[in-house]
Amino acid sequence: MKTDIQIAQESNELPIEEIANKVGLNSNDLELYGHDKAKINWNAINQIKKNNHLGKLILVTSISPTPAGEGKSTITIGLGDAINNQLHKKTMIALREPSMGPVFGLKGGATGGGMAQILPMEDINLHFTGDMHALTSAIDTLAALVDNYIYQDNSLKIDPERILIKRGLDVNDRSLRKITIGQGSKFNGIEHKSSFAITVANELMAILCLANDIDDLKKRIGNILVAYSTDNHPVFVKDLGFQGAIAALLSTALKPNLVQTIEHTPVFVHGGPFANIAHGANSIIATNLALHLSDYTLTEAGFGSDLGGQKFMDFVSKHLDKKPDLSVVVATVRALKYQAEETTENLDKENLDALKQGFKNLERHMNNMRNYNIPVVVLINKFASDTDQELSLLKSLIKEQGIKTEVVNYHDVGSKGGIEAAQMVVDEANKEKENIQFTYSDSDDLKTKIQKVAEKVYHAKKVEYSDKAEEKIHNLINLNKDKLPIIIAKTQYSFTDNKKILGAPSNFILHVKNIELKNGAGFIVVSTGHILDMPGLPKHPAALDIDVDNNGKISGLF
Q: What SUPFAM superfamilies does the record point to (predicted)?
């Protein structure tokens, strides 16, 4: 089969105005970026918000990711195409923007695969409409303004060694994790330690994805906790007066980007916070607009149900105009066998015992989503190596749990690779819902929230806190910020904080190493295990396979 980029480049894109027309938008609502992508302008956004129509919201999540591959984005896109083009129901998809760090590193892009892709694939995975560059500029401008404030005046007595914000770069660069700036004479600034986080792990990315409009964006930026003073007082961006300038840098990036699938289903691609560090969902603006414009909106939560799924249900959904009507859990035979075998070497060989053992991981993810009191279905992403016996066994194991399932092959066939699955999803999404049951209450204190997620979602028996974490909790109590929602930073590969422990472990200890207030975003990051907000490049980065010819045609992007 052809590579993803070959399939994408040979596809027939429609003018973006035609895609917009499918959901009632016209050329006056768009700000064009070439012929195949556009932003929605503020006049249109404000008008759409007044529309009382709200379609069904379908959340796509997954089992724990493995090197064997799961294909969650491919399933989200293919399922959206099937509902739109095979069932002929007005459908939109809302996805995150890829970070260029993983694109040139190890993980790859985020535009789907095979016949279930979003276009233009190269642009979306690289510079797109410039949102990531705007964010990077805003992050580094804020850092420069804070350093300049300390250098020029510092009437608030900011302690240079207690600056909390990081610089940003949308590149995997381990050498920038810890740096010293202002070296040399005082002419170069005040010497102090600093650090970089990848752009998508910065609080400004979370703020961009949570803000409802520019006023909300400006308010959230103003609420960012910048540093502490030498006399231990918190200093916020609004104390320094920089929120207007930073919001101005992000005002265009706040508008959602409209693109299309290979089969011409409308897609919003906007915002991209990591799910193992931040909340892992595309922008609130994009999802809400899709809900008002379509009858069925599909969106994706990063990584497995223990990360993106949990954060979407307990945090993101409370910012949306409606809660999810259905959760789709994506699984593959190969990935479940990997959960048992812990190697990719023999995944092409039939192994029913390994599949049975690995099924425990899927069972945990299914029950995680079912605990929210919404319908759950499983889509099995078919690979060529899957045997009939393996697929039959997996379907029977899922059905024994009282959950509906279908095998799909959107990657190879496109929307026709799962018409029955699309109908099943639509039928389940239209069922009458009870009230969602959240993992914790808003009124719970910080440790109670952490304990409930650890026990109910991860199946830990206990949570242990480092001295540093205990000190941070004490500080939050003093700031009266200890009741905010939590975002747990954890490895995506395991329910524990140790990426090597696969399957569905229970009765382990979750180790909380640090607590960070993201006051502008409105949540507390709880760091467990060994989580890096600035990834490094692998020995063989994807960049080695990427090239461009003299006609500007890019190759090697998967």
A: P-loop containing nucleoside triphosphate hydrolases
User: What string of DSSP letters covers 136-172?
Assistant: HHHHHHHHHHHHHHHHHT-TT-EEEEEE---EEESS-
Contact (Cβ atoms closer than 8 angstroms) between residue 132 and residue 161? no
Q: What is the pTM of this model?
A: 0.96
Task: Spell out where 483-530 has E strands.
Answer: 486-489, 509-518, 523-528
How many other C-beta atoms can be found within 10 angstroms of the C-beta atom of residue 106?
A: 17
Residues in the annotated binding site for ATP: 66-73
CA distance 167 to 114: 36
pLDDT digits (tens, 9 = 90+) for 187-235: 999 999 999 999 999 999 999 999 999 999 999 999 999 999 999 999 9
Residue 163 CB-density burial (10 A; 0-12 exposed, 13-18 middle, 19+ buried): buried
pLDDT tens profile 352-406: 999 999 999 999 999 999 999 999 999 999 999 999 999 999 999 999 999 999 9
Smallest CA-to-CA distance from 21 within 13, 33, 30, 32 is with 30
Cα–Cα separations (whole angstroms), residue 383 to 68, 332, 409: 10, 8, 8
Could you give the CA distance from residue 408 to residue 134 in angstroms, rounded to a whole number? 38
Whether the CB-CB separation of 94 and 392 falls below 8 Å is answered with: no
Long-range contacts of 424-430 (CB under 8 A, 24+ apart): 424/377, 425/58, 425/79, 425/83, 425/326, 425/328, 425/377, 426/56, 426/83, 426/87, 426/89, 426/296, 428/326, 428/375, 428/377, 428/404, 429/56, 429/58, 429/296, 429/325, 429/326, 429/375, 430/56, 430/325
DSSP-assigned beta bridge partners for residue 261 = 118
Number of CB atoms found within 10 A of residue 273's CB: 30
**H-assigned helices in 95-130:** 100-104, 121-125
Q: Residue 409 — φ and ψ, nearest 5°?
A: -140, 55
Distance CA 164, CA 472 (A): 13
| Dist. CA 46–CA 41, nearest whole Å | 9
Distances (CA, A) of 407 to 99, 418, 543, 552: 30, 7, 34, 39
Q: Answer for the pair 23, 294: CB distance below 8 angstroms, yes or no.
A: yes
d(C-alpha 207, C-alpha 203), whole Å: 6
Alpha carbons 31 and 222: distance in angstroms, whole number: 28
